[in-house]
Each structure stands twice: as structure tokens, then as C-alpha cells.
Design a protein that fits this description.
Number of helices: 23
Helix content: 55-70%
Distance between the termini: 24 Å
Structural class: alpha/beta
Strand order of the largest sheet: 2-1-4-5-6-7
Radius of gyration: 70 Å
Number of strands: 15
Largest sheet: 6 strands, antiparallel
Amino acid sequence: MKPLRLELEAFGPYVGKETIDFDGLSKSGMFLIKGPTGSGKTTIFDAMVFALYGGSSGDGRNSLDKWLCNQADPKATCGVKFTFSANGKTYRFERQSVVKRTARTTKFDVFLIDSDGTEHLLISSDNAGAINQKAEELIGLTRDQFVQVVLLPQGKFEQFLTANSEHKEKILKRIFNTENWEWYAGRFYEIADVEKKRLVDLYSSVEVSFKQEGVSDLDGLLKRVSEIELFIEEAKKNHLAFDGDAKRKKLDEEKLLDREFTDLDTLKAKVSELEGRKLQIEESKKKLEDAEKAEELRPLIEDKDRCQGEANRRKKILEEAEGILPGLTESSENAKKSLESFKESSQPDDDRDRVTLLESKRSVYAEAKEAKKRETESKTLLDEAEKELNNAKGALASSEEALNKAYEECNNAQHKTIDYRARYFAGICGNIAAEELENGMPCPVCGSTEHPSPAAKAPDSVTKAELDDAEKAEARAKKRFDEAAESHEANRKLFDELGARHLKAEGEYKATVSAHDILKASLIEGIDSEDGLNREIERLNNKIKEFGDRLKELEVLCEESGKKLEAQRTNIENAKAELKAAEDALEASMKQLEKSLIEKGFGKLEDCEALLMDAGVRNRLREQHAEYDTELKNSRKDLAKKQDELKGVNRPDRTSFAERDKEITEENNKYISETTRQENEAQRLRKLHEKLVPNYNEYKNGIQRAEKNLALANQLRGSNGIGLERYILGVMFNQVINEANRMLINVHGGRYQLQRTDEKNGKNRKVGLELVALDNRVPGGEGRHVSTLSGGEKFLVSLALSIGMSQMARKSGLKIEALFIDEGFGTLDDSSINDALNVLEGVRNSNGMIGIISHVKVLDENIPRHIEVIKTQAGSSIVVN
């Protein structure tokens, strides 16, 4: 990382915009930042840190509002822009606080700048976290690491030098990123610990299975399986000895024979039941024979019933027709009476005459309507004119009041001016004598240079300024009076004009009222408008039309009722003739039926009708009779056959069937259940054995390796000594010390060299990050703790150690092309300063740029390029020379 440009605006003590071109300063390699105490030299370093990480090189302030210059405009933009190169590319980080409306808002931007100056916005956010992360990504350092490697803050040089091992470890871990080694050691421990616990848990699960099965090892499971297999074999032998299949076969044969005897009993019962129904079947056959005899007379009976029904129907029709006739007769008479009554009561001619009269008045009503409209319009104009006149009257009164007031104020101002002018001229000589007249100077009144009796100052005199104020007040009052008079005259003219307009509107309104009254006298009483006239004409026309419609309706009704009466009389005569014909047909049908009943041997018609059956009923009876005869014959045949088959055979004892069946079933079920259960148990134990074998073998083969890995992991963590991370820190710290010692060769003639100690902490673990200074003037000496060095010696040794850390950070992959040192040289004599400059000169050749903040005169004389901070009452500014 190489700084190129820094821009400040209203930042810290800097009121305006300040710019530092580091690229130009880098050509000389080293530059000095100087200025009075509190002028803002350290703020330059703070601004670079703040632009990148949002915190200062000291207290870590991360709010732009806290950096706002208290002497700048409260609405000024506060911010910092830092341009630098990293990894062959140029970037600019910007942090700004801008006032929008009444509040400040922060803005964070990151730009990538091409070689031709083209800018590309990479990040634009109001979240500082994103830009902080980008700075760490580009530079490869956190804020703390940046301050330790690139910026060496004021008063913090010896902190690392004299710190104990624990504190040094924290700093070195941040600078050299050794947290990864600690993470690797911790991660290896986690993996080893998890693996051992997994194996132990695996074996624990195996042991739990052993305890549940009541065995101590895998062989015990196999022994259990063998015992179950022997039990199953013995059960098979006992099952074969019982011979359940043979017993089941014999029992099934006896059950089949018992069913044969049961079938014999069923056949006997069926033949007995059929023979018991024989008399009933004979009676049904006789009834069917009589029904077929009566069926021959069915056509004659049905013809008689048809004739009887037709005669009854015709009689009913006649009765209904005769019942309607009186009502039709009455309706016809009423229709005639209504027609005559309506003709006598209505007088449409009067209504027609009334309509003719009303139609003749249409033009009169139209003129009256227009006259009323003109009257309304003229009344509206009159009301508006009256309203405007009243408003003008009010405005005239207000302007008259304002005019009177302005006149009074003007009159008072004139009197005051006259009074002030008289008092001023009356006392002017006294004022000149008191304020302007001096001995040797000519009097402006008499010209004398001697003034033995100067005029006395009047007690009530006024000054020229007071007179001028009174005259100005009079002029303003006069102007207000003129304006009020002009406004009052305009209001008076407007009132006169509106009065004339109101008088004209009032005359026009009276004329329209008179014309309207004349036309209203010609209107028909009770009808006061053209709409009312139209409604009355429409009502009379509707009444005339309703009369015509009703008359026509009654005439049609009268004609239709007469036609219905005549038609009904004709229907009655026809119904009488049809009834006579139906009665004659019924008489002829009865004679024929009575003759046939005698011939078939039936005494009464009712006896014959009682024997009639539907064809379906007769067919079902025939089928029943045939089925009965067949079933009786077949049952007798089957019974004889079954009796022959069982002749000489004894019926088995069926009472023992259930007990024997139960015995066979229970023995078979017991055998199947027990052998199945034992086979399932054996299968379960075999599967359990297959499951436990790999787990047991995995534990047995892996537990020793896991314990070794866990022991190694504890060693890497430093549980029993120095861990991997502390070991690596020690190696890297040695390299830092070597770099520091290489530079200390040129300090005080190479008197001091640094060395690590093997200090132990309270837990007896080696720490190894403490430092002692070996004094070459005391050969073979043990050295002394660095905290015992003098102030100047501490600064030089701390500077060498800090630069050594910076160099090691670069060697670890960070390309840092700048180093900034804040103060510390004040404790050195001139010789030590020269030694320090020699050290820095060697570092400059590899770093490229070194900036130093200091008040020391020797540095001012030996470093050619300066950044001078100028401090004034209005704030600080920067001059580069």
C-alpha cells in the first residue's frame, strides 16, 4: 500500500479544504510534518486511518460528526478522501457527512481509478461496515495492524517493547494472522475429540445391546441362537408324534357322513310338508277351473260397464250445462243494463268544449311565462346592484375614516417638525460652541479665532439628526394622507356610479312587474302557469279517451255475453239427445248379458264377477300347480334313493366333533406359534450380531489411533506446554528481533542487542515472548529487562523493534511502501537522533516513503521536505514545501 493523495474538508482543526500530494513527497523518500502543538499534525495520520477504517490512530473515533471542525460553517460538508495504490491498482476511499435539509447524513464511497484517470464506483453505501471490510481486503491489514505496521502512534512505541508475553502474543497474533494456526490446532482437537467420543459411544451402544440380551460378548449371542435352533427341532419331533393330519382326516370323514344323515332327515321333512299341502292345492285347481269358465263372459260384462259409464257421463254433462245457463242469462242482462246506464250518465261534449277554450289560451300563457322570466331576471340584477352599492357604501365609510386618521397624523407630524425646527435653530449656536469651537479655529458664525464668550447650549434644543428624523416622519405622514385622499376619492366615484346603476335596475324591475300583472289578469282562474294549462288539457283529453274506451268495452261485453247464452242453450239440446242414445245402448247390452249368464249356469251377475281373475293370476296358479306336482314327485324319488344309500350304515356320534376339532386345532396353532416366535427370535439375534460386529470391530481397530490423535491435538493446543500457535509466534518473533538487532548495530555503536527469554507463567508453561537487552560492554552478561532502559534508549530500541515488525509484515506478503512515525524523538540527543535517522534511511530504501511528526530542530534541519501545519484563530491550514 502506497499513499498518493489526502484531501480534508472541515475535518478536525482544518476549516477549509486541504490537500497533501504524497506522490510528490515520496520522491525525496522522507518528509517532516511540523507545526505548533494542537495545530493538527496527528490529525493527518488520523484522517488516513479514518478514511480506510472509520477510526483514528489513537482512540478509534468512528463518527464523522465528532470530526466536524467546530469553527466551520455548521452546514459545511465534513469529510476525508484518501487515494492510494495497492496491488498495482489505484483506489480512493471517501467518507463524507453532508447536510440535507436540517439533518446530517453520512456517505461512504470507494472508487477504482484507471491509469487514464477514469473512475469506477465500487461501493456506495450509508453502511460503514462495507467500506471497512473493503479496506482490509485491499490492504491486508485490520485497523489495529495498520496502526502497528504502517503508523507508529505518539506515546505507544514502548508499549510493545515492555509488554508481557500475553500482551505481545495478542499484538503478534493480529499482525501475523497466526489465529489460523490456533484454529487449525483447535479444529484438529475437535475432530480427534469427536472421533474418540464417537468410538466410545459406539462401544457403549454395543455394551447396552449385550446387557439387554443378557450376554457379555458376541459369542454369547451366537450361543443363544444355537439354543433356540435345538428347541425348534425338538418341537418338530413332538408335532410329528401327535399325527394331527391323520386325526383331522378321520374327523372330516365322520363329519361328511353325518351331513348325509342330515340330508335324509331334510328329505323326509320336505315330503311330509308337501303331502300336507295336497288338499289346499286341489281347492286352488277347482277355483282356477271356475275362473276360466267365468272368463268367457268377460267381454259382455265389460261392454255393459262401458255403456253404463257412457250413460252416466252424458247425464253429468247435461246437468253441468243446465247449471251454467242461469248465470249466463244474468250476465247478458247485466251487460245490457251497464251499457245503457253508461250512455245516459256520461257527457263528453262539455269536456271537448273546455279543451277548445284551453287551447285558445296557449299564446297568452306563453307570454305570461316570458314576462315572469323577465321579472325574475330584473329582480336578480336589482339585488346584485343593491349588494354592490352597499359594499361601495361600506368601503366609502372605511376610506373616509382612514382619511381622517391620516389627516390627524399628518397634522401632528407637521406641528412636531415646526417645533423641532424652531428649537434646532434656537440652539444651533450653543451646539456649535459646545461641540465644534476650538481656540485658534475660526468661528463659523463670526469668523473670529478667539472665543472669549461662546454661546451657551439651549436646554431644550434638538440635534440635526432629531430634526432630520422629524422631517422624514412628516414626509411619510404626508404621503399616507395623499394616498388615503386618493383612495377615498376613488371610493366616492365608485359609490356614485353604483347608485345610478341601482336606480336604473329598480326602474326596469318595476316595469317587468307591471307587464306581468297585466298578463296574469287574462289567465283562466285556477290555472296560473303554462305547465298547469298543459296538465289540464292533458287531463281532459285523457278523460274523453277513457269514455270512448269504456263505451267500446261495454258494447263488446254485451255482444259476447249474448253469444255465450245462445251457444249454451244449443249445448243443452245436444246433451239431451246424446244421453237418450247412451241409455238405449245400455238397455240392449244388459239384455244380452242376462241371456248369457243363464246359458253358463250363473244365477247372478255378482257371482260371475267374483270368479273373474286377471290372466297373470291364472297363469301363476297354473305354474304353482305344476311346480307342486313336480316337486312332490322328485322329493319322493330323492328320499327313496337316500334311504337305499344309507341302508345298513350307522350314524356317527356328532357330540364329540367339537372337542376333537378343538384338540387338533390347539395343538397345531401352538406348534406354529411357538416355532414362529423362536425362529423370529433367532433371526433377530442373527441380525443384531451382524449389526454389532462392524461397530465392535470399528471400536477395537480405531480406539488406539483416536487416543494418539487426541494426545497430539492436546500437544498442538499447548495443554501440556507450548502450543503450535505459540511456537510459530516464537519463530516469527525471533525474525522480528533479528531485524531489530540488524538495525541496532548502527545505534550507539551497536551497544544493545535484543534477546527472548524463557519466562514461565503460573501454570509452569513456557511463554518465551519476554525481552531482555544484552549490553555488549558487559561480555557474557545475562542482560537486563527492557523496562530498565532509559527513555531515549527505549525509544531507539522500540523504533528498531517496531520497524522490525513492519519489515516482517512486508516479508509475509504485505506490500507496504510507507511508514509514518508520530513524535518520540524529543527524548534523544543529537547523536541518538543521527543514529535514528541512519536507521530510518536504511528502512526508507525498502519502504519508499517515511513521514515523521516532530518538533525536534535537528530533524527540521536534516529532512528537506516539510508539511507545515499553520495554526490561526480561524483554524489550521497546510503548506507543503
